[in-house]
Amino acid sequence: MTNRVLVTGATGFVGRALCEVLDASGYQVRAALRGPRPLPAGVADSAIVGDIGTGTLWERALANVDLVMHLASPVHRSWRTTSEGELYAANAWGTRRLAAAAAASGVRRFVYVSTVKVNGEGSAAGPYTAQDEPHPEDVYGSSKWLGEKFLLEEAAGSRLEAVIVRPPLVYGPGVRANFLRLLRWVDRGWPIPLASVSNRRSLVGVWNLCDLLLLLLTHAAAPGRVWLVSDGVDRSTPDLIRQIGRAMGRPARLVPAPLGLLRIGAGLAGRAAELRRLCGTLQVDITQTCRELAWAPPVAAEEGVARTVRWYLATKGTDGHP
After folding, report:
1. How far apart (Å, rounded) are the C-alpha atoms in residues 29 and 9?
2. Taking the CA atoms of the chain, what radius of gyration do you get in angstroms?
3. What is the mean pLDDT of residues 137-159?
4. What are the structural domains, with CATH classification, of the chain?
5. Nearest residue to 68 (alpha-carbon basis) of 107, 97, 94
6. Are the C-beta atoms of 168 and 230 separated by less than 8 Å?
7. N or C: which end of the chain has fewer CB within 10 A?
8. What is the pLDDT of residues 174-192, one digit of tens each?
9. Handedness of CA 114, 294, 291, 163 (dihedral sign)
10. 202 pairs with which residues across the strands?
11. Burial code of 222-245, b = ≥16 C-beta within 10 A, e = fewer?
């Protein structure tokens, strides 16, 4: 066996980090690409597959491949403007076609990076567990859940081992969306009206996610299961902002503001969902992951934030500006 891994989404934020980790661990990494582009560090070769959907041809990409890491999905900044049909084509039916092709090609294990949005958008009643009944609240979460089910169906009755991971918000070098917005707010010294927020959120640094993904490629307990992952500590949004400020060496200008007023303003600006993610509670329980896989997040949460801040400051004002 060659221990060749096919990685979809290899040029994305998480995919780039994962390819380097896989290469450093002795795997031969093949990237499945939409079109010609420079290969990320750690990638040995590539295969052009076009858009991932119901008609994707996977035979060449899967030739002599033992393992699949399926990360590809519409990126955060674009999936909200992607049609429902396109989301299902990529996340659900595209996953089914890849899983069927992997099973037919003799792939040993298929690790699918899904999302905690399959569980829901908020966990005020208590942290999510892998055993909870899924309750996706938008098309993105629903399409990823269907992708999970399709993967398990295709693996049943074949030698293909299916593994599912549901991460919460992932941060690290290359992060976008709300985390990048917080970095910019603190860096620019803007008043941040979130001092009154009292929430708890699970996040995962890209280093901790990649470490778990690496383990899931080989661990005997992994197949047929859903695994949750986080940094192992939950933070309020104000605490996260203060951590960013400490890492930048400048104060975070948190100011109190009525949450009701913030919700009205966010609604008028079309940013209600973003505010809910900043102010709401979403926790995942990784007790089972740590116990059954004998795993612990290797990078402390505060160190992960500090590394992300260093990347942000290093790329500011360059062609790599976030």
Report:
1. 12
2. 20
3. 95
4. 4-170+204-228 (3.40.50.720), 173-202+233-315 (3.90.25.10)
5. 107
6. yes
7. N
8. 999 899 999 999 999 999 9
9. positive
10. 234
11. bbebbbbbbbbebbbbbbbbbbbb
| Active-site residue set | 140
Higher pLDDT: 319 or 193? It is 193
CA-to-CA distance for 242 and 71, rounded, in angstroms? 31
301-315 and 206-216 helices, crossing angle to 10°: 120
- Determine the Cα angle at 86 with ends 82 and 91, to 5°: 105
Position 23, amino acid:
D
Rounded Cα distance between 151 and 188, Å, is: 44
- For residue 28, what are its two tokens? 């031969």
- Bridge-based pairing of strands 28-33 and 161-166 is unpaired
Contact 5, 29 (CB under 8 A): yes
282 pairs with which residues across the strands?
201
Secondary structure (3-state) at 266: helix
> Which residue, chain included where needed, has tokens 């693996």?
155
Q: Which two tokens stand for residue 291?
A: 């116990």
| Chain centroid offset of residue 120 CA | 15
